[in-house]
Amino acid sequence: VNAAWVTGGAFALAFVFGAVGNRTNFCTMGAVSDWVNMGDLNRMRMWLLAIAVALLGSSALQLAGVVDLGKSIYPGPNFTWLSYLVGGFLFGVGMTLGSGCGSKTLIRIGAGNLKSLIVYVFLGIAAYMTLKGLFGAFRVGVLERASVTLSSGQDLPSLLGLHRAVIAAVIGAAMLAFVYKSREFRASFDYTLGGVVTGLVVVGGWVVSGVFGHVAEHPETLQEAFIATNTGRMESFSFVSPMAYTLEYLMLWTDKSKIVTYGIASGLGVIAGSAAYALATRTFRWEGFRDAEDTANHMLGGMLMGFGGITALGCTIGQAITGISTLALGSVMTFAAIVAGSALTMKYQYWRAGG
Amino acid sequence: MNHDVELDARGLNCPLPILRAKKALNGMQSGQVLKVVATDPGAVKDFQTFAKQTGNELLSHAEADREFTLYMKRK
Predict the structure, then answer these.
(1) Chain A residues touching B22 at Cβ < 8 A
(2) Do A96 and B10 touch (CB under 8 A)?
(3) What is the mean pLDDT of chain B?
(4) Residues A331/A107, Cβ–Cβ less than 8 Å
(5) Is the pLDDT of residue A355 over 60?
(6) What interface predicted TM-score (ipTM) does this complex get?
(7) B75 touches chain A (CB under 8 A)
(8) Are B66 and A283 inside 8 Å of each other by CB?
């Protein structure tokens, strides 16, 4: 087991995601926008396709005994329902104000958007404050008090008493049927490319952490470990806490206990992949703020995503794709809360728009 | 190209250019032309989708000096 395999693998997969995300215009906030503002579901289908591919692939890995999804943070017994709802909702508001979710922020940075770089900094600081600082006190002291302990875990197979293969097959097939029912979706190579690649990147992410990074008994602690992670658990792609840990790594550079982790490498990989695509296709362009209101919206958007993403244990990728691939109930709840927060913010923005 | 209303969406990112265009079109008469100037790299794709979904015709789009100029006819 070598940490470089973990961080290198995460970087490589994230690079592919960044390049394909840039090319295909994959955007979870854009998916909500197209739906709410235009009645177009194609980018929502792209997102659902990514979820279906991740769910089917991850379930196959689990059933084949390659990885144990129960070792990730998502399906644990602590069902913090209020945190999923409030965190998800605020994340949805934030991504609408901030020109896109965590992954889109990274894709935009790679393509030359300086506004997204400011979102990154505010998101990272707010996320860190929610992990260990002022906002963390509110998260733990207020929101996480509303929780239910589900002794056998919060994953749907345990809750429903059904076999994982059955649930994954039924949900996956229903999603694929909805996605490919659309002739327009079938006719576009990019839609399928964006959805399938994103889903496979999450599946590959589990292999990187759960196989390359897995130590059955760590020589120092004599306990099972997943090396080069910030959570100490098996990880796949998620983008909020990694931004906090990237800032921490840069600021505590000389502290030898700080290392480049799976999450840090994945964030950098998305930026690099998007930048490579933008430069190769000559679509790289510098973008800056329009005015004070635009600046304030992005600063607030970043902070809401940082707080919401940590509180809800993940973002539109971390919970809505990676988390759902473990069939955790909290992930499904967070997904719904994010979409609701984003849609309502767009209604407000439309009402407020100068006509 | 002649236009009746102009929308400056420079420096704005998704979803604001679409939302503001939608609001502007709402206040226009059928057949009138809206000119939009935008800088978001996704603007052309977004307006193509918007035209297809809403029936407002995208008359033309062009790029010069890192700006996209689009003309849309109110249905």
Answers:
(1) 37, 350, 353
(2) no
(3) 95
(4) no
(5) no
(6) 0.94
(7) no
(8) no
Tell me phi and psi for residue A287, to 5 degrees. -130, 140
Q: Does B26 touch chain A (CB under 8 A)?
A: yes
Contact B10, B67 (CB under 8 A): yes
Closest of A264, A309, A260 to residue A130, by C-alpha: A309
How do beta strands B67-73 and B57-64 pair? Answer: antiparallel
Contact A15, A208 (CB under 8 A): no
Average pLDDT over residues A22-28: 97
Inter-residue contact A63 to A270 (CB < 8 Å): no
CA B43/CA B47 separation, integer angstroms? 6
- Residue-wise pLDDT tens digits, A169-183: 999 999 999 999 999
Closest CA relative to residue A23, chosen from A287, A281, A285: A281
Instruction: Write out the two tokens for A49.
Output: 């396709």
- Percentage of chain A modeled with pLDDT above 90: 96
Cβ–Cβ gap A40/B49 under 8 Å: yes
Amino acid at A166: V
Copy the structure tokens of residue A110: 């790679």
Residue of A nearest to B43 (CA): A25
Helix, strand, coil distribution of chain B in percent, nearest 5:
30, 35, 35
Helix (H, G, I), strand (E, B) or coil at B33: strand
